[in-house]
Design a protein that fits this description.
Shape: globular
CATH class of the largest domain: Alpha Beta
Radius of gyration: 16 Å
Structural class: alpha/beta
Number of helices: 10
Largest sheet: 6 strands, parallel
Number of strands: 6
Order of helices and strands: EHHHHHEHEHHEHEEH
Strand content: 5-15%
Strand order of the largest sheet: 3-2-1-4-5-6
CATH topology of the largest domain: Rossmann fold
Number of domains: 2
CATH superfamily of the largest domain: HAD superfamily/HAD-like
Amino acid sequence: MLVTVDLFSALIDSWTGGSAALARITGGPGERLYDVWDAANKASQRDLTTWVPFAEHSRRALAAAYAELGVARDPDADVVELLDSVGDWPLWPDVAEGLPALAARARVGVLSNVDDAVFARTRVAPLVDDAGLLSSERLRAYKPAPEIYLRARERAGGRLVHVPTSARDVRGALAAGIEVVRLRRPGHRLDPAGGTPQVEAADLFEVARLLA
């Protein structure tokens, strides 16, 4: 069995980290800018039919966010600084101990819309073997398309359990027929129209207990 966990919702508090980074980069409030950038980034990943790096999706999304919010800055330069900052984005409180606890129960990986180089900068990277990284760069697909989940299951070589948090990740995994244990995190709600997983957990320790 391979258990994959989402990166930017389930393991990293990306809203807090990304908002702080954008505030530092632009000198203005980062929360609204992060929300607009994140939405544009997800839409780009969803709608583009050919694979491009996560960094390029992020650059296009930041340009769109700057245009929408009237921010007179260079998105090409700023997105480099933004993605360089991911090492400062905080883990959720249970991750540093909970991810190794989960790894004691099963093979653990990360299934994420991310480039390998960006992942390597995060605080999650030291907690996961390189073979466990199932990135969009490696699988050549993006959530919530079914291809990324099905290719992850092929890599698992058997049973795959995915641990998502966001509504779109839950929806994509369920639509692909992947077994889901949803990890509840602050600020994330399910979309009732997108399917409801049968199993939920409050933290990674509970995920480990459920899988046992």
